[in-house]
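The pair is quoted verbatim below.
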Amino acid sequence: MSRDRLYLFDTTLRDGAQTAGVEFSLEDKIAITRLIEELGVDYVEGGYPGANPVDTAFFEEKRTKSATFTAFGMTKRAGRSAANDPGVQGLLNSAATATCFVAKAWDYQVKLALGSTTEEHIEGLGDTVRTASGAGKEVLVDLEHFFDGFKANPEYALSCVTRAIEAGARWVVLCDTNGGTMPAEVRQIVGTVLKFAPGDKLGIHPHDDTGQAVANALAAVDAGVRQIQGTLNGLGERCGNANLITLIPTLVLKPYYAERFETGVTEAHLERLTHISRAFDDRLNRAPARQAPYVGASAFATKAGIHASALLKDFSTYEHVPPESVGNERSIMVSQQAGKSNLLTALSRHGIVLEKDDPRLEKLLATVKEREARGYSYDGADASFAVLAHSVLGTLPSFFDVEHYRAMVERRHNAQGEEVTVTEAVVKVRVEGELLMSVAEGNGPVNALDQALRKDLGVYSKRIEDLELADFKVRILDGGTGAVTRVLVESRDGSGERWSTIGVSSNIIDASFEALYESITYKLLKTEAASVSAAEETLQHATAVG
C-alpha cells in the first residue's frame, strides 16, 4: 500500500522569536538550526531578512544542510510592483532557497490592518508569487487568519488560495492565526478548500490558544493537507504553536498515521527527539516541561504502588510507545530503570564502543545519574558527556592540571577621570610536569579566565589556536542564598564544529571555569584522535612502501 508524503515545516526561528522573553542571537539561530535538522524536517524557516540585523546576517549564507532554507516576508506593498518592492527583493536576494510570503485571507483584516481592498491585495499576492517563482525560488504563501476569513467571506478566502496556486506557489498554508478554530471546523473547512486546490499543495499552521494546535494539525492531515507547520516544544506568541516534538512521533509511531503517511523522519531522528527538546530548552535557559508528551521526564514515569508486580512484568500496559524509540527512558518510582541503550548510543557518537554487559557502563550510568541530581544536564552539553565518559572509563589523557586560578574585578577611574571596570584573571597550570602561569584581561571574569587558560598550554598551545568561545548562558537552578548555578558554554573551532560544555556550582565563576576547562579538554580530545589517526596512516604508508 503506497503512502502519501507529509512535509514538515519548522517555524521556530520566526514564530518562536515572538515568544515573550525569547530573543535569539545569531549564534542561537545557527545552533538551533542544527537541532531542527536533527529532527529530519523538510523546511527550516529562519526569519525575515531585512526586518532586523540578526535575521539579515542569518540569511547572508545558506544555513541548512538537508532541509530547505526558507525566508519569510510580506507580499508587495500597494502602489508598486513586486519587482520594485525593496522588501520582496530583499527576500529574493537572500541565501534562502524558498520564500514564504504572508497574505491576509480575512477581508476584515485587509481593510483594518492594510487599509486596502481585497481586489488590490489579491493582485499583489499574484504579482509577488509570480516574481519570486520567476526568480527561481520555491514559493510558499501563508494565508493569515484563513479560518476566520473563510467563515466571514468564503469567496474571498478561497480566491486567495486559487490565485496563489495559479501564480506558481508550491504550497498554500491555511493559518489558524488566533488559535480559536475547533478540530471539527478545521476538518470541514479544509474539505471545502480541497474542491478548489489539491491537498499536496496545502499546508496547516495552527496556533495553540485553545490547547488544540496538535489536534487541529492532525485534523487537517486527516482532511487532506500534506504540509504541517510547527515549532520546537510548541514555542510561539501567546500560547504557542503546534508542537513538532509531539506531532512528529505521533505521525511516525502511531499506526493510524504511519500506515497512511511517510515523512523524512527516520528511527535515528526519533531517537534524538528527547535530546533535541531538552537541548533547546537549555539554550532558552528554561526548565524542560516534566510532563511533556514523549520527551518529558515524567512521560514514562509510573508510580508502581499496588500494580508493581504487573508493571515489572509488562511495561507496555503503561506506555503507549517504547521510551527508547524517542530517546527517553523509563522511570519507576520504586526502582529507577537505567537507559543503557541510550548511553551506548551516546557513547558511539564519540567513537566509544562498549558491550552492554561491560561493568564500566554501570559505573558511568551511576555517575551520570548522581551528577544530574546535583544539577548537571548532558542533553545540551554533549561535549561534557564525552569528557565525563572518558574520565570514568579511564581513557581520558592527562593533558593539563589546573593548580590555581583567580579572577579579580576592579572598578576605578582611568587617566581621563572616567569610571571603568577592569577584569583580570590569573591561571596556573601544570603541563607535563612544567608549571605555567598566565595573566589576561577580559570583558568580565569569564572572558578573562578563558583568555588566561588558553594563553599558554605548553605543548598543546598550537592545538587550541583556533578555539573560541561562541556563547555563554547561565541558569539559576535553586533560589535563595545557596542557589546552584548551571553554566552552559558553547565553543567552536576552525573546522566549523561547535560543542557545548557544562559547569555546576554554587559559585558562578567556579561553574564557568569548569565549563571552560571541559571545552578545552574536549578540543584536545578531538585533536588527539586526529593526530593518532594521522600517525597510523603514516605508519601504514611507510610499511606499504617498505
